């Protein structure tokens, strides 16, 4: 289990953890660790999406500036 996977891997791991919990295949002794890991991955994904959104907005803003200057 990697500490900071890529976005796609994080989503897949979250889905796997959720499936284990829903199917009741998680041993109660490791349930807390699974939930903590899922929380970490969700936060990681949320931050990744926010950063990507910010970068896209920045690129679009620069693009719009360039278009206004070309007129």
Key words describing this protein structure:
single chain; 71 residues; mainly alpha; 2 helices; 0% strand
Short summary:
With 71 residues, the chain is an all-alpha fold. It is built from two helices and no strands.
Counting structural domains, the number is: 1
Molecular shape = rod-shaped
Question: Portion of residues in helices?
Answer: over 70%
Write down the Rg.
19 Å
The overall strand count is 0
Biggest sheet character: none
Low-confidence stretches: none
Q: What proportion strand?
A: under 5%
SSE string, helices as H and strands as E: HH
Mean pLDDT: 91
What is the terminal-to-terminal distance? 53 Å
Determine the number of helices (DSSP H or I, runs of at least 4 residues). 2
Judged by helices, strands and strand pairing, the structural class is mainly alpha
Descriptive account of the structure:
The protein is mostly helical and about 70 residues long. The chain has one domain (about 5-70). It is about 85% helix and about 0% strand. The protein contains two helices and no strands. The protein has helices at about 5-20, 30-70. Helix 1 packs antiparallel against helix 2 (about 30-70). The longest helix is centred in the last third of the chain and has 43 residues, at about 30-70. The protein is rod-shaped, with a radius of gyration of 19 Å. The N and C termini lie far apart (about 55 Å).
């Amino acid at each position: 289990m990697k500490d900071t996977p890529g976005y796609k891997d994080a989503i897949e791991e979250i889905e796997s953890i959720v499936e284990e919990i829903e199917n009741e295949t998680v041993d109660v002794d490791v349930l807390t660790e699974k939930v903590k890991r899922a929380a970490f991955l969700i936060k990681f994904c949320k931050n990744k999406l926010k950063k990507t959104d910010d970068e896209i907005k920045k690129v679009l803003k620069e693009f719009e500036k360039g278009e206004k200057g070309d007129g």
